[in-house]
Design a protein that fits this description.
7-stranded mixed beta sheet, alpha/beta, 27 strands, 34% helix, single chain, 633 residues
């Protein structure tokens, strides 16, 4: 009778699960067809068991916390599928029973973190599985589930269950690793294997397998009436607010114009503009026109003056012959030296280009973004659907190092997926971010997250960047939940004599302080300085470091967040760390980490870091602890 019931539920529940979660499975053939195997998986949601059961080619038996068997509503179901209970403080019985099931040839799954992750990242792994493997002699295999964060069954939005899904269906990828013998399965191996599988699973998500142009269209078409960019200019001046349909209409209008106006032989077009919503629109228009924007460094503050020699150097490094900029800078730029002295380039006035978009085009696109399916929009605009691996789609000359960084479609989409896969930011939030597009991390926070993942980027206008008090007004006016700040801006806030408005202090959830250094006192990070308490006194939120090593040019790879330990869960859930003193941050999901072959350093691999299969060295002296936090030497 139990066999019939199990078969009935597999037939009725697994197909809807695969459909609802748009399940993709990577390397399912690595699962041994027979014999006892201990499966170790990351633990993000209350439906992890369903996802793994749907992904596995073999029936799976799960080790679960015993308190769930006390709930009559689900205990019968768990017992039906042979769940093995484990009681905190009395693990010996569970270890003995699990080892016996493995000896009998079962496929048993254990979550070695021992708890659900409330950050979206991998927690410290417990050693109990090592004893189970030794006692049973069974092979041990790892699996990683990517994409589940954000579903109603995760801790996203600070709670489980009581919320509506952001979208349906919800894409999820599961990657299986190679099995190893019990003697070779220890905590160090398991963590390295799980992180490598996280990179493989992230690369298999549908968003990572489309073109950047199509990703832009699909991203802007979701909730087209919501805000994408908000730019505040100071007292007495109305803020510039751009909804997603405004952004889409402007980008399409620019693309239609530039397909005809720009020289066909020039695929790379420079962009020389201060940070803000306008360069974002220029970048999107160029991409939809089939061109590659190359963002050139611009002075970080309104007091800075454009240096023709520095601009000439950036243009030569980028090898562009056309640059979109403002007419206000043309006088200074007359002496710029172009890559080919015999073929002087030209500056394109962005105001003239924006003004050339006719009203009918804007109205048409604002209407079609709501009515037209994404696939039809792609065909109408003649956009590619599949990415071309290795062909750059976007680039920048790094404002700190002067190096040229180029990324293809999959790299940018993968970086965005990785940055939105945890509890440091939440979907549809407003972020205060003024990062320049002349840096990889700046584009991630100020362009790709707002466009591809429905966040709102809030900033001050370029002329108002020297007014720190305007940050409070802008954040309060746009209901900002997160601050994404360079250290110097955080320090300016910390020097404010009075705290921010109580309503804003209540709204803010965290402040990410972007650090691009690796020294023992990284950059000017207030998390590591005496301004920490002052910053928290002003804003009411804890400053948390995020690391974007400038020398690698791959954007943000580690973040921190306030400890996710709400009072309501303390009686049933273990403490989890969101940040640690002295840490650069915690490695983002979707990044593989290992020791160098010689054991003298650490290496990274993952989509958007370099070639997906290539390992790159972290700066010397970086170490990682058992929870995945990175520390400088």
């Amino acid at each position: 009778m139990k066999s019939l019931l199990r078969a009935f539920f597999r037939v009725t529940l697994l197909p809807p699960t695969r459909l609802l979660y748009r399940l993709r499975v990577v390397n399912a053939n690595r699962v041994p067809k027979s014999g006892g195997v201990l499966l170790l998986a990351n633990h993000l949601s209350f439906i992890d068991a369903f996802i793994l059961t749907a992904a596995s080619p073999r029936p799976v038996r799960f080790v679960i916390v015993s308190r769930y068997l006390d709930k009559k509503a689900i205990s019968w179901f768990l017992e039906l599928f042979g769940a093995i209970p484990i009681t905190p403080g009395r693990s010996r019985d569970a270890i003995r029973v699990t080892a016996q099931r493995l000896k009998e040839g079962d496929f048993v799954c254990l979550f070695p973190e021992g708890q659900l992750s409330r950050t979206g990242m991998l927690n410290e792994l417990k050693k109990g599985f090592e004893l189970i493997a030794r006692q049973s002699g069974a092979q041990v295999q790892c699996a990683w589930m990517q994409g589940l964060w954000g579903s109603v069954f995760t801790f996203e939005r600070g709670q489980y269950f009581h919320k509506l899904p952001h979208r349906l269906p919800w894409p999820v990828a599961v990657a299986f690793g190679d099995p190893v013998s019990a003697e070779n399965a220890d905590v160090a191996w398991a963590r390295e294997s799980l992180l490598q599988l996280s990179a493989d699973a992230l690369a298999a998500l549908p968003m990572a397998e489309t073109s950047l142009a199509e990703g832009i269209v699909r991203g802007l078409k979701r909730r087209p009436g919501s805000l994408a960019f908000a730019e505040h200019a100071g007292p007495g001046k109305p803020p510039r607010r751009l909804k997603r349909h405004h952004v889409f209409a402007t980008a399409v209008g620019l693309a239609e114009r530039w397909r005809e106006a720009l020289p066909i032989q020039e695929r790379k077009i420079g962009v020389l503009l201060p940070a803000g919503s306008t360069p974002a629109l220029i970048n999107l228009g160029l991409i939809l026109a089939g061109r590659m924007p190359v963002n050139l460094p611009f002075p970080a503050s309104p007091e800075g003056q454009l240096d023709p020699e520095a601009v000439s150097s950036a243009i030569r490094e980028a090898r562009v012959n056309s640059v979109v900029t403002s007419r206000a800078f043309l006088g200074v730029l007359e002496s710029v030296q172009w890559p080919d002295p015999d073929r002087p380039g030209n500056f394109i006035d962005m105001a003239r280009e924006m003004g050339a978009i006719n009203l009918l085009t804007r109205l048409r696109e604002r209407l079609l973004i709501r009515l037209e399916p994404a696939w039809l929009t792609r065909k109408r605009l003649e956009l590619r659907s599949d990415p071309i691996d290795g062909e750059p789609a976007w680039a920048c000359i790094d404002e700190k190092t002067g190096a040229l960084h180029e990324f293809d479609d999959r790299a940018i989409l993968g970086q965005t997926l990785r940055l939105s896969s945890g509890n440091w930011i939440e979907a549809d939030e407003a972020l205060f971010t003024e990062q320049s597009l002349a840096s990889v991390a700046g584009a991630q926070w100020s362009l790709w997250l707002p466009v591809l993942k429905r966040f709102t980027a809030v900033s001050r206008s370029f002329a108002s960047r020297n007014e720190p008090d305007l940050i409070e007004d802008a954040c309060l006016g746009e209901n900002v939940r997160r601050l994404v700040l360079p250290p110097e801006t955080a320090e300016a806030i910390a020097r404010r004599p009075e705290p921010w408005h109580p309503e804003l202090r209540e709204l803010l959830r965290s402040a990410l302080i972007l650090n691009d250094s690796t020294g023992s006192k990284p950059g000017r990070d207030p998390v590591e300085s005496e301004e920490t308490s002052a910053f928290q006194t002003v804003t009411g939120t804890e400053p948390c470091p995020a690391w974007q090593p400038a020398e690698l040019g791959v954007g943000t790879i580690a973040v921190s967040l306030p400890d996710p330990n709400p009072e309501a869960l303390k009686h049933i859930h273990q403490h989890q760390n969101g940040r640690k003193d002295g840490a650069l941050g915690r490695l983002l999901p979707g990044i593989a980490l290992r020791e160098t072959p010689g054991g003298e350093g650490l290496q990274l691999r993952g989509i958007g870091l370099d070639d997906t299969e290539k390992w790159i060295d972290l700066p010397a002296g970086i170490r990682v602890d058992e929870e995945g936090f990175l520390f400088p030497s």
